[in-house]
Known about the structure:
The protein has 3 helices and 2 strands. The chain is of the alpha+beta class.
Amino acid sequence: MSAERPRWAKPVVPVAIEPVDQVLVLGSGRRQAEVQLVLTDEDVERMRTGYVCAKCLQVFERPWPERCFACGAPIRTEQAAYFAREYGGEVVLGSRISLVDELARLKEEG
């Protein structure tokens, strides 16, 4: 029987990864495509409240550590501002219209 993971240790798993029209140019000159991670409301809230690193998605047992122990990001001093600047708000996945309504709309147009 395996030990159950503590609730705080639940990893952040993006529900979608969307491409964006931006490229990151690294110090070496290498170009890397940017993406937008779509997270659950629960994971966004954990990030907003300092339980998850906004840069590498490492989870913390206690909120707002001085630095992320995985990537070194300054959590306590800079994450709130980074989150406010970078968080894009809610993203709707899929259509807001029901399949029945969409089929009816298509019949009207056709």
